[in-house]
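Subject: Interface between my chains keeps coming out wrong

I've been trying for a while to get a sensible model of this assembly. When I model each chain on its own everything looks fine, but I need the whole thing in one frame so I can look at the contacts. Pasting all components below, labels as-is. Any help appreciated, I'm running out of ideas.
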Amino acid sequence: MNKFYSLDIKEINPLTLDSVEIKFDIPSDISEKFKFKAGQYITIKNNINGEEIRRSYSLCSNPNTNEIAVGVKRVDGGKMSTFLTKEIKIGDILEVMLPTGNFIFEGGNVVAICAGSGITPILSMMKSSNSAFTLIYGNKTIESSMFYNEIRDINSDNHFIFSKEEVEGCFHSRINDSVIETVLQGDYKNRGFYICGPGELIDNTEKFLIKNGVKTSDIFFERFTLVKKKNVVDKSKTDEIICNITVIMDG
Ligand SMILES: Cc1cc2nc3c(=O)[nH]c(=O)nc-3n(C[C@H](O)[C@H](O)[C@H](O)COP(=O)(O)OP(=O)(O)OC[C@H]3O[C@@H](n4cnc5c(N)ncnc54)[C@H](O)[C@@H]3O)c2cc1C
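Reply #2:
Try treating it as a single job with all components included. I did that and got this:
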């Protein structure tokens, strides 16, 4: 179950000053095992300064291709994210677990709300979606936004929110109730809502959606970090929680 596979790094693409996309080479004899659903993640293991470190990274590639790729944003002082964004090179081998997770794209008319590195599972969903897809994506600036150009090339209803920069046609704000209402214009019915980002974004957005009549069964979310508040953790919807940290992901 917890088996790790040794995978070659095939490609490393710088995304922003502090983030990269990493693509793995998957040998044909295990490519079936690495099939995944949009929204799922892999766990990477590495020995860093004599300590075994394991961290999860959501797949950002299209599940309908054989590509396995992740987008990693460096966290100040972060062991694995610093290693992955600064030290690896093409041809290095990383120990990787098979894709897993319950934050799974179910298609249909979707609204995705995310910030910072929370874009990664959402990008995979966008790449594989065949129907209406509305994206609300928050960052500090264009320059700090992972996959900004790639997303603009996807034919979806994209809304960018920048907290530290004024950009024509974009919101100059953080993601909040008013941004969501301005984008959705009261159209909350028969849509699936996928949220990924800081805990506060998930909690506030979920409350706002429920207030607007969205059923909890239509709200899906992925937390990249441990949540301490007991009343907001829905075990049926969250994935394996790896570490106890404070998250600031909008830049
Ligand atoms: C299911 C899942 C999917 C994930 N997908 C992605 C992904 O696609 N891309 C991605 O970049 N990350 C993702 N993460 C987060 C990732 O697993 C690591 O937690 C992150 O890279 C930090 O690990 P680290 O070893 O560098 O930091 P650590 O060494 O664990 O932490 C170092 C310091 O940084 C703080 N810190 C850690 N993380 C954050 C943060 N996000 N914001 C602010 N401070 C922090 C800690 O409190 C600590 O003080 C995901 C997590 C989960 C559980």
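Reply #3:
Confirming on my end. The radius of gyration is 17 Å.
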